[in-house]
Design brief:
The complex is a heterodimer of chains A (about 280) and B (about 325). With about 280 residues, chain A is of the alpha/beta class. Helix content of chain A is about 30%, strand content about 25%. In chain A, strands 7-8-9-3-10-11 form a 6-stranded mixed beta sheet, with helices on both faces. In chain A, strands 2-1-4-5-6 form a 5-stranded antiparallel beta sheet, with helices on one face. Chain B is mostly helical and about 325 residues long. Chain B contains 15 helices and no strands. Classes of the chains: A alpha/beta (about 280), B mainly alpha (about 325).
Chain lengths: ~280, ~325
Amino acid sequence: MSSSPPVGEARVDPPTGAPGGMSGSGGEGLRARIVVRRGQFVLDVEVQAAQGEVVAVLGRSGAGKSTLLRTLAGLLPLDDGRITLAGEVLDDPHERRFVPSEKRPVGVVFQDYLLFPHLRARDNVAFGLRARLGHGRRQSRSQAESWLARFGVGDLADRRPAALSGGQAQRVALARALATQPRLLLLDEPLSALDTSTRAEVRAFLRDVLPALPAPVLIVTHDPVDAEVLADRTIALASGHKVQAAVVTPAGRSTDALSAPDTTGSCGVASTDVGEAAAAKGN
Amino acid sequence: MTSDASLSWSGTSAQPARLTQSGQPSGSGRPSRSGQRREARRRVPWLLWLPGSIAVLFLLLPLVGLLVRAPWSGLGHLLSEKSVRQALLLSLRTSTESTVLSVVFGVPLSWLLARTRFPGRTLLRALVTLPLVLPPVVGGVSLLLALGRRGLLGERLSDWFGFTLPFTTNGVVIAQTFVAMPFLIVSVEGALNSADRRFEDAAATLGADPWTTFRRVTVPLIAPAVAAGTALCWARALGEFGATITFAGNFPGTTQTMPLAVYLALETDPDAAIALSLVLLAVCVTVLVALRARWLPGARWIRRARAGRESTTTDAAAGPDGTTGAGGSR
């Protein structure tokens, strides 16, 4: 996060879902009120993401981002609240309903990718195809190869994760998560494990890929620049609570912050301010 | 002497990150020039090297004695005797069966101990690893009381199924399993505890149910530890004496395993005892060498993955040139 490449002019494609459309089609996407209590710490936040929308959850470490992500992924049950995805209730303690991780149509790209070290890239992607979609071994492998090819790493199918660079591993991990045809994609700090030069490249790659996905995308990050570049909308989180919901337009203006028009071209800074202010307000 | 050798060995290996963590404990604040790192030759206190050397002598001398006094010329003749062959084959067979039993029942138990939370888990772990410290003879007596003809469960087995364990070959397998399985459990549970559980999370998010995750992710990740535990378990079963002779007796052909044969031969035919001991020694050395060489194909990627992770943390902490010391010690 030390580097903030000039992103203002680099943005090419505006995301498909305009900010106005998100609340209307909520039944299609994700609607969640997430409450998790752990001793003193309470995470209590509402998250909505429409089909085709990319939402960033921005916060410092300890703000509850990982907890939020784990509840959505089904790795941690809610203490209160409710998670619905595409009209299906995934977690509701009051209804005593909890869909475990392996039965949720949710794909996750983990922070350091967590590619299975004993499997080649192809078999990492095929893993989900076999486990979730129940495809046969051969079919899974050929599909896995086409997924890898789609993300430009088709020639690395035979590599083990240890032989992949950070950027390559990121693509394989994304292919692995998307191959299971999730109805929600979660990315946990997608850029933090990368060195500075790779980060810019992967950021550009994600910016191209994510808006085109047929599922809502939730990115958890501590980096305002990543949130700004990748997401249509940012939820700032501090001490487990939503402190500010900033709708960031493609031009880089935070609509609710009513930032002055002269910040064009320095949107990275503008969104940093949002994040910092949010964090400060939380403390 | 041994530790010194291993230090210089790791010094020449191509893992600087690990070397700085383990190889240079303290005092060596100087950043090493160039890529080649050498241990600083420091004076070793005689209070350490003297007892250490005595320990080495103490451990090696009996082996030397065995090798020196071995009846090398008559060895072929001694080993071709029927009783020897019988004992060896019985030992190999029973210890292999014990190992299979230990893996089939021990690995799931290790998983339960490492991955589930239930009341009394700590107590249970202590109890199932008790045979590690229990004198094997006591184990044999306990087995008799439980599975003997008049034992708790043994009486039922005998009455209902006409099935008796003590003083049979199956009894040998039971006695060896009782003593050897804890070695496997300890080894596998340790590996499960230190394995990165987030891989299992990742598998779950990809739609793998717990059993699939266990089979396709957990077990491959801990495969080296399972292999090491299996080898240990097998070696322990092979050498088992006390529980076997107490529970299964000492009948040539059915329950007289190699260690029992060695003990018996020592009274009647010392040369045969030495020959048998040599065979056991050879078998154990083979297992040890196989372990050290990490013959498993799986061990390589795990080490590589670990090295990769370490180098990333090092890079993050020290920058690309890596002049500062290694990052977090894990």
